[in-house]
Amino acid sequence: MKKIRCLVSAGPTREYFDPVRYISNPSSGKMGYAIAETARDAGWDVTLVSGPCFLKVPKDVRFVSVTSAQDMLEACKKYFIESDILIMSAAVSDVRPAEKSSRKLKKSEIDLNPRLERTPDILLTLSKEKKKQILVGFAAETENVREYALKKLEQKNLDCIVANCVSGEKSAFASDENDIDMIMRSGEIIDFKPASKIILASRIIEFLSVRFFGANAKPKSKI
Ligand code: C5P
What mean pLDDT is predicted for residues 66-83? Predict the structure, then answer.
């Protein structure tokens, strides 16, 4: 049987305004790396495009290291064409400094009101190039999680979206645990129940296998 070709993005992006200073977020990459490893264990052919993370590079996956949202877009574009599914779990920075200095700025030179610009929306860009690929997004929200996630799914023309809360003690950022829902285009919501990111990765891959690739592609469950 042909292997399922899976492109996973993970971690934060960094948007530098000089060689040592940047805009980013606290994403650890744990969820995306767990997904990449689980998909590999399920026999999928995995490409992991990763922003800067402090995690071990998984074995037997094609690993592409990137820094900025622009880098991530270019890498994802390259591998998207030959993928069956894109799982976009990266926490892409929404903005970047409009100007970047090639040398370290002196403290007194730093603009205290820097002009920012939007980074490219990778999922939206790729959804316009979509042929048969399944697109899976992630939505990290601090409120109205399901409602905002569904809106995102529609705006970015996704097949489904993983919704998680990133406020207060329940924050998924950098944690080993998560509490997620899978939301489908139809509005159907599947509650994946709180668990470790390793177990949730297993539930996600199993769910995607059954829904989009037929039960034969089912991985061995760690649940
Ligand atoms: O719009 P928002 O950032 O909340 O959407 C989250 C989803 O979109 C995630 O899957 C994230 O990886 C993706 N995204 C993207 N490019 C961006 C911002 C987010 O692909 N510039």
Answer: 98
CATH code, domain with 170: 3.40.50.10300
φ, ψ of residue 196 in degrees (nearest 5): -70, 160
Query: Of 25, 144, 157, 164, which one is the catalytic site residue?
Result: 25
The answer to whether position 107 is within a domain reads no
> Among 73, 93, 94, 123, which residue has the most ligand 1 atoms within 8 Å of its CB, making it the best to mutate?
123
Task: Please check whether residue 106 lies inside any domain of the structure.
Answer: no
Pocket of ligand 1 contains residue 80 by CB under 6 Å: no
The one-character DSSP state at 138 is E
Task: Examine residue 42 and state whether it is found in any structural domain, yes or no.
Answer: yes
163 close to ligand 1 (CB < 6 Angstrom): no
Cβ of residue 217 lying under 6 Å from some atom of ligand 1: no
Q: Which residue has the higher pLDDT, 221 or 37?
A: 37
To 5 degrees, how large is the angle CA 177–CA 29–CA 192? 40
How many distinct structural domains can be found in the chain? 1
pLDDT top residue among 166 and 33: 33
Q: Are 162 and 204 in contact (CB under 8 A)?
A: yes
Kindly state the helix (H) or strand (E) to which residue 146 belongs, with its residue range. helix 145-155
25 has catalytic annotation = yes
Mutate to test the pocket of ligand 1, among 119, 122, 166 (most ligand atoms within 8 A of CB): 122
> Mean pLDDT across the chain, nearest whole number?
93
